[in-house]
Amino acid sequence: MTKWEYATAPLLIHATKQILDNWGADGWELVQVVPGPQGGDTLVAYFKRPLP
Question: Does pTM surpass 0.85?
Answer without folding.
Answer: yes
